[in-house]
Every structure is written in structure tokens, then in C-alpha cells.
Amino acid sequence: MLPNCQEVCRKIASDELAEAGLWERLITRFHLWRCGDCSRYSEQLRTIGESVHQRAHEEGSTSTDLERLEQSILESDDARLTPRS
Amino acid sequence: MNEEHTSLATPEFVERLRSGDAEAKREVVRAYLPQIVRTARGAGLRPEEAEDVSQSTFVTFLEVVERFEGRSHIRTFLFGILYKKIAETRRRLARDNRADDIEDVMESRFRPDGRWLRPPRPVEDRFDDVEVRQKIDDCLECLPLQQRMAFVLREVEGLNTEEICKILEVTRTNFGVLLYRARNRLRECLESKGVEG
């Protein structure tokens, strides 16, 4: 039986399709090809994911911040391993 | 998207780490610190909170690494510690006391036969506008931690399902539910703010 819009949206949003069989992927693609609303829904989820990805990678900490933090972590570890006199 | 660092996954490297090799520790910190900080920020912590949690994650990792048996990837082990630290911090900051009503919202968008009743609105705004980006940040704040982590680990860090399930300690089915809720909550939130990507 062919999936309805609600079922297609659930499969897309839960990444269920990635592990689905060939037939299920084909009928879902066919549904998306025919259904403008589901196609728009799928496109919106993809755009949101890409935007969040891009933003997170652009605003990452500066190399100075990371070097300072790295140093601080390794110093904490050294302090833990150094016996107190 | 997914930063693998395959040389850090070898049994020889794990052994160096377990035996306390300082250079191996430095390599792990250098390799994964950017991802850890980015994920802590992605989980909704402010910059200074994200730094504290990242530092605490590595300090715990280095404390327990001698007992690490190498059954999972080092990154999976690290992200598992990070997830628990973020959960502790957010509990402390009491940011997760919101009811989850997204299933009802999604249900109300469809007719009983499963066809759209209120379909998504057409594309108008651009997602790279500064104002829209601020709205995305605001909407991310609405996600409960587990949904947000599932979304960030998948979309920002590009980890596979198996690894995310291990980090969050959920089944594949539960992970699907978390992603479904996170994405729909974000989409609904953005639509309510007038953004239709």
C-alpha cells in the first residue's frame, strides 16, 4: 500500500528512509515527486539542517580560545598526576 | 562533515593513551576539542558554559581513560561523557522543564486519512539572513536536551545513527523519534516566527 503524507513526513523527519529497503525508498520518492506539500516539507527540513550546520561551523571558537582551553585541560591533568608534597 | 581522525582509533594509539602517554593525550585533546566545544554550544550552552563543560569532559576522560577498553571509538566515549556533563549543567540551570507537545501539533496538521490539512507554507525568507539566524537560535532553545543533541550530532557533526545511539544511550527507534520531534519542533517554531525556509 502507498504511504500517505503523514507517513511520508514521519519517515523523512526520523531518517527512517536511510535504512529502508529499495521499494520503500522508491515509493516515498514517487510520493514526494507528486506531492508539492510533502516536497516542500522535506525541503524545509533539509534547509533548516544545513543552516544550523553552517552556523555552527562558522561561529566556532577561535584558535586562540582553543589553544588556551587545550593548555588548561592538559595542565589540570598534570596537576592531577603530580603527587602533592 | 564527520571528522574521523582514524589514526586515533587504532589499538596502538588506545594503548598509548591508557598508559598515560602525554603526547597521545595532547593529540586527543587537539583533535576533538573543536567538535566538543561546538557540540556543547549546539546543545544550548553559552560560550563560557560550553568551555567549562568541554574542559570538564576532557578532565573526566583523562581520569578514566586508563580503564577505557577500546570497545567503542574514542570519540563515542568522549561524546558520551560530554552528553552527561551537558545534562548535569542544564539540569542545574533548569532549562529542560518544558512539556513536549510536538506530536499533538503534528497530528493536527493532517486529516484522518493522513493527507495534509494545514500544509507547510511556501518558501519566502532566506535562511542566511542575520535576523533569520537569530530566529533559528531562538527556536533551538525550545528543544529539550535529548532532541537537541540528536539533531546537533546528526546535522552539525554528521555522526552515524549507531554512534549517536551509543552516545545518547537510546535505541534506533527512539533516536528516530527524537529526530522527528526535534526537526518538527524547529520547523513549527520557525513557521510561527514567519520564517518558511
Structure, briefly:
By secondary structure, chain A is an all-alpha fold. In chain A, 75% of the residues lie in helices and 0% in strands. In chain B, helix 6 packs across helix 9.
Question: What features would you describe in this structure?
Answer:
The complex is a heterodimer of chains A (85) and B (197). With 85 residues, chain A is an all-alpha fold. Chain A has one domain (5-79). Chain A contains four helices and no strands. In chain A, α1 (5-13) packs parallel to α3 (36-58) and α2 packs across α3. Chain A is elongated and about 70 Å long. Chain A starts with a helix and ends with a helix. The mean pLDDT of chain A is 88. Chain B is mainly α and 197 residues long. Chain B has two domains: 6-93, RNA polymerase sigma factor, region 2, helix turn helix motif (Rna Polymerase Sigma Factor, Chain: A, Orthogonal Bundle); 102-192, Arc Repressor Mutant, subunit A (Orthogonal Bundle). Chain B has nine helices and no strands. Chain B has helices at 11-18, 22-42, 47-64, 74-93, 102-107, 130-140, 145-155, 161-168, 172-192. In chain B, α3 (47-64) crosses α4. The chains are: A mainly alpha (85), B mainly alpha (197). At the A-B interface, α1, α3 and α4 of A face α2, α3, α6, α7 and α9 of B.
Helix and strand layout, with pairings?
The complex is a heterodimer of chains A (about 80) and B (about 200).
Chain A (H helix, E strand, L loop, with lengths): L4 H9 L8 H13 L1 H23 L4 H19 L4
Helix pairs in contact in A: 1-3, 2-3
Chain B lengths: L10 H8 L3 H21 L4 H18 L9 H20 L8 H6 L22 H11 L4 H11 L5 H8 L3 H21 L5
Helix pairs in contact in B: 2-3, 3-4, 4-8, 6-9, 7-9
* Largest interface by Cβ-Cβ < 8 Å: A-B, 45 and 56 residues
By CATH, the topology of the largest domain in chain B is Arc Repressor Mutant, subunit A
The biggest beta sheet of chain A reads: none
C-alpha-based Rg of chain A, rounded:
23 Å
Number of strands of chain A: 0
* Helix proportion range of chain A: over 70%
Q: What is the overall shape of chain B?
A: elongated
